[in-house]
TrEMBL record:
Residues 9-205 form the Calcineurin-like phosphoesterase domain. This is Metallophosphoesterase. It holds the Pfam family Metallophos. It comes from Gymnodinialimonas ceratoperidinii. Keywords: Hydrolase, Metal-binding. GO terms for molecular function: hydrolase activity; metal ion binding. It comes from the Bacteria.
């Protein structure tokens, strides 16, 4: 029996609004606070919490200001990256420690035998702010190359995190705003045998995929849903603004006996008490 889990918690697509604003009648800050409390109560042994982008709904400084006290009180270290709904300047002003010297929210964190590489796929100087699709510029790709090499030298297996998935998921409106230079990412990950898994957000639904390598094999991909609003299960033609009030969730990543495990935990379904029938 295992008596210890190397564990990280993942929240994506918080979409926090300024005070008084809601999304389809939901208060994103309240939903995140509820999910965070749920996660901290059940997983106080987690070593990291990753916020995988779309922290704010419209990049508003007043939204980030509501998030800061929650994170300041969090007993587990929090790693932050950006999504398409974030804006770099206000997020950096609110959480300046979340950006590297080049101005990107990219991070390497150790989790037992794993190295977690968190990428910043927000459009930046290459294209206009608040473009919805993602992009990894040459500087960010160079960081990834260096970190993949360093992880191999350190004998670490790698889990990569990126807000924008580099693969289609069947919601056409979302597929149109995925990672625009997905091949730049996938070619690197496919060429690195120590990369074990990719975790994404952006879609607002729990999805499992395998991003094929033209040379053979595939990379497993887990996409986690939001603690707040989800995309309705309308495959094919859709709009990315369509949302539905279904249970919010967070992810639980485990490094477990040479296996990367990603759970998706719905909260706010009930009081969570276990009953025997
Ligand atoms: Fe989102």
């Amino acid at each position: 029996m295992e008596d210890h889990f190397d564990k990280a918690l993942i929240f994506t697509d918080l979409h926090i609004t300024p005070p008084g604003e809601t999304i389809i009648g939901l208060d994103p800050l309240a939903r995140f606070a509820e999910g965070l409390a749920h996660a901290l109560a059940r997983h106080p042994d987690a070593q990291h919490i990753i916020l995988l982008g779309d922290l704010a709904h419209s990049g508003d400084p007043a939204a980030y200001a509501r998030l800061v006290p929650l994170l300041a009180d969090c007993p587990i270290p929090v790693t932050v990256t950006m999504g398409n709904h974030d804006l770099r300047a206000p997020l950096r002003a609110a959480l300046p420690g979340s950006f590297n010297a080049e101005g990107f929210a990219q991070h390497a964190r150790d989790l037992g035998p794993l190295r977690l590489l968190v990428l910043d796929t927000h459009d930046y100087e290459d294209r206009a702010p608040l473009e919805q699709d993602g992009w990894l510029c040459e500087a960010r790709l160079a960081w990834l190359d260096a970190e993949l090499t360093r992880a191999a030298e350190d004998g670490k297996d790698v889990v990569v995190f990126a807000h924008h998935p580099p693969c289609p998921v069947g919601f056409w409106a979302m597929d149109a705003i995925g990672l625009a230079n997905s091949e730049a990412l996938l070619s690197r990950l496919h060429a690195a045998p120590h990369v074990r898994h990719l975790v994404c957000g952006h879609i607002h639904r729990t999805i499992h995929a395998s991003a094929a390598n033209p040379a053979g094999g595939a990379l497993p991909v887990t996409i986690l849903k939001s603690p707040c609003h989800q995309i309705p299960m309308i495959l094919g033609q859709s709009t990315f603004a369509d949302s539905v009030d279904e249970p919010g969730a967070y992810g639980i990543l485990l490094a477990l006996r040479n296996t990367v495990v990603v759970h998706s935990e719905d909260f706010a379904l009930s009081d969570g008490s276990v009953q025997t029938y």
